[in-house]
Structures are given as C-alpha cells and as structure tokens.
C-alpha cells in the first residue's frame, strides 16, 4: 500500500464498518489538554477521549512507563503472570475495599466479568433460582450482549436475537421502583454511582444507601460500574468513597489506563473465590504494557494534589458555564460532580446537544454529549486552569452563534 494515499475522513466511509459517525477532524498529536489535527489546527480537549485521558495527552509519566515496559516485555497471556499486573493489583486492593482483581481490556469486559461472577456466586451459594439482575433505565454498561442487555436502553440491545434473560430495570433515584422488583431471587443490583451516558445523573444519598440496604436484606450483590466515574473523575479515587456506600463488586476501566486499553473488576476474597480456575478469562487481560501504564496513571492520580485539583477545576467549569448561561440563557442546569459535568439545554434547545458540540469543535474546543439535550465535559484531571478558561471562551463563541 502506498504511503501517499490520502488518509482522510472520506477513507473512513470506504473502509470502516459504518457503526460510528466520526467528526471530519482527524487529530494526529496531542500534548496535555491540547490536540492538533492533520491541518495543524489546535483544539482544547474537554472530552478526554470520553473520560479516558485522565492525565491529558502524552503525559510524561505514562509515556515513560510505556516506553520502559516496551523495552522489557509486551505480552505473556495469563498462562503466566507479570510484574506490572501484580503491582497494579496490589495498589488497587490497598486503596479500595477490594481484596482481589480480575483484569480485562475494556469497561464492557470488566462488567461482563462482574455479571458472570455475580451469577456464579448466587448459583454456588443459593442455587439456580437466584439469577435475577436488577439494573437501571438509562444505565450504560458496555456493548457486549450481556452488558447491553443490562444497560437501560432497549434500543441498544434490540435486534440481535434472544437476549440473556432474567434482567429487569428499575428507575434511577427511585428506591420504590427497586423495592418493587427485588426479592430473594435477585442475585445482583448493578448501578453507576453517577449515570454518565444516561445524562449525568447523581444519585441521592438516600437512594444509594437504600439500594445497599435492600441488597443486604435480600442477599444480593451490589455491583458499582465505575467505568466512567472511577480513577479520580469525581474528585475521589472512586465515587463510592464519597457516597459512603461500599459495593461488593466494582468495575473500572476508561481512565484506569489513561488512554491505554485496560479494565478491571475488583471484589472481596469471599466473592472472588467463585471464579474458580477455568471459569472465565481473557488473552490480553493484565497485559504488561497496559498494566505498566495503568500503574503510572494510578500513582499520578491517587494524590491529594490531583484529587483536590479535580474539585477546584470543577468549580472553574461550573462558574464559567454559569457565566456563559447568564449571557445567553441556553442551559436549564449545570450538573454532575468533579470533572464529569453536564450542561443541560433548556426547553428552547431540546435535541440540539450535537449542534453545540459541532459548533464548539469549529471554535477549537472538543466536548461530548450525554444524550440529545446535554453537553458533557470530561477533561483531563490535570487540565491547566488557563486551558479551561481559554476552552470556555471558545465554547462561549459557539454558544453565541447558536443562541436565539
Ligand atoms: C458506566 C460505563 N460502563 C461501561 C462502559 C463501557 O466501556 P467500554 O466502552 O470500555 O467497553 C462505559 C462507556 O461509556 C460506561 O460509561
């Protein structure tokens, strides 16, 4: 193949399966919270690869860990363990409620492991009857068939034939809707400790604690999907720490590798023992390159400076977005927690979140959406304040163009 062939957005339509609709912009390099495209146009990154690039682009600690490991050993499979995986697992268990770690390559795979473990735990302890999984409407847990069925949007799981069974959906922040479904046949309740894709919805304390109590009453496991909220995003290492509710199983991915694909399911010794030898596995899970980068990301994020910085930077965003709104009156609410922020469009701009994202891109700032009515921000946890202010100034220009 020629090195001179045009590599552009049109080529995507020629050679890629059409399940995505990527932007016309093709970024080629990044540094911190700035990204440059093929034409060397610069953007400020408020998207973070969908809450993944927790330390921005090309953070020296991550580049250092990756290149160092690249010169040692790349891959072994789980026929052998490796030093980076063991070190990372030790750090995850030392810093959380968990005693045991299973490594995967993505959020969906981490959740897949959690769901299979919950089912197997229930089968071993209580028998085949206890298989019900309660999840939440608008929840999102990944795109494997099991996780998409547990996710709370049938549109994502319909059309692929018979779905995994015994999965029901309650309403987030509505404890009565959980009470109406839960019984001794429930094996697990699966929830995000802040719904991300579903619209940046924070659980009330009463709801989170109530779900924990219901799980206790019915001997059901509480599974927290912290794929989006974990690794400092909300200002604590994991969101459960601030909620005061400890899950039985927790999944983490996205920011865990700071941009290198990795996920993990963590749990207690007592629950973990049900994934006996041969019950589950992955060729790449715990890959040394991934674990070396994740260890560096974990060490860098898990410091008071970075975690307190998240809270301070969040305030800069909220103040900036409120100031924009005072001028242009486009949002009904700025919500979220830490650096997972949703600007909710008011009744005059329903369904227009993508227009705001596109206009922002034209002004040189990358944002996200969460559904049709929310512009979402999930920047680097160490984004410099100057970049937040400059990015918000660019975002304001986009808002000014769209405001009626
Ligand atoms: C809460 C949550 N769980 C799971 C996933 C799926 O992760 P992945 O795309 O890495 O499979 C996502 C992705 O957006 C997520 O936000």
How would you describe what is shown here?
This protein is α/β, with parallel strands linked by helices. The protein has two domains: 9-58 and 304-402, Aspartate Aminotransferase, domain 1 (Alpha-Beta Complex); 73-301, Type I PLP-dependent aspartate aminotransferase-like (Major domain) (Aspartate Aminotransferase, domain 2). 39% of the residues lie in helices and 17% in strands. The chain has 15 helices and 15 strands. α4 (83-94) packs parallel to α12. The radius of gyration is 21 Å and the shape is globular. It starts with 8 loop residues before the first helix and ends with a helix. The mean pLDDT is 97. Pyridoxal-5'-phosphate binds next to α5.
- The number of strands is 15
Write out the CATH superfamily name of the largest domain.
Answer: Type I PLP-dependent aspartate aminotransferase-like (Major domain)
Tally of distinct domains: 2
Q: Uncertain spans, ≥5 residues at pLDDT below 50?
A: none
Helix content: 25-40%
SSE topology string = HEEEHHHEHEHHEHEHEHEEHHHEEHEEEH
How does the helix and strand content classify structurally?
alpha/beta
Report Rg.
Answer: 21 Å
Return the average pLDDT rounded to an integer: 97
């Amino acid at each position: 193949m020629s090195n001179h062939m045009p590599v552009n957005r049109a080529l995507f339509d020629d050679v890629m399966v059409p399940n995505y609709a990527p932007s016309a912009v093709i970024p080629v390099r990044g540094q911190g919270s700035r990204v440059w495209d093929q034409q060397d146009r610069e953007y400020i990154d408020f998207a973070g690869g969908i809450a993944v690039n927790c330390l921005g682009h090309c953070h020296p600690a991550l580049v250092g860990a990756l290149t160092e490991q690249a010169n040692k050993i790349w891959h072994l499979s789980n026929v052998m363990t490796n030093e980076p995986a063991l070190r990372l697992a030790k750090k995850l268990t030392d810093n959380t409620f968990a005693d045991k770690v299973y490594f995967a390559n993505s959020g969906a795979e981490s959740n897949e492991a959690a769901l299979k473990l919950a089912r197997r735990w229930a089968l071993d302890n209580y028998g085949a009857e206890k298989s019900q999984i309660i999840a939440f409407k608008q929840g999102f847990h990944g795109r494997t068939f099991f996780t998409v069925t547990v996710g709370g949007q049938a549109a994502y799981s319909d059309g692929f034939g018979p779905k995994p069974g015994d999965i029901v959906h309650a309403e987030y922040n509505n404890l009565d809707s959980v009470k109406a479904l839960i019984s001794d046949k429930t094996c697990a309740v699966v929830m995000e400790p802040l719904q991300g894709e579903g619209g940046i919805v924070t659980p009330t304390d009463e709801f989170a604690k109530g779900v924990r109590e219901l799980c206790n009453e019915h001997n059901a496991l509480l599974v927290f999907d912290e794929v989006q909220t974990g690794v400092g995003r909300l200002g604590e290492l994991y969101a459960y720490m601030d909620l005061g509710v400890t899950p039985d199983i927790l999944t983490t991915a996205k920011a865990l590798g700071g941009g290198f694909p990795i996920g993990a399911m963590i749990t207690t010794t007592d629950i973990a023992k049900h994934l006996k030898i041969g019950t589950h596995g992955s060729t790449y899970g715990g890959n040394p390159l991934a674990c070396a980068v994740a260890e560096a990301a974990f060490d860098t994020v898990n410091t008071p400076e970075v975690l307190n910085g998240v809270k301070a930077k969040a305030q800069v965003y909220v103040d900036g977005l409120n100031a924009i709104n005072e001028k242009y009156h486009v949002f009904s609410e700025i919500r979220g927690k830490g650096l997972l922020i949703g600007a909710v469009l008011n009744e005059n701009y329903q369904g227009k979140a993508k227009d705001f994202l596109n206009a922002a891109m034209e002004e040189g700032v990358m944002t996200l959406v969460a559904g049709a009515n929310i512009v979402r921000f999930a920047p680097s946890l160490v984004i410099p304040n100057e970049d937040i202010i400059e990015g918000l100034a660019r975002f304001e220009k986009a808002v000014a163009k769209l405001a009626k």
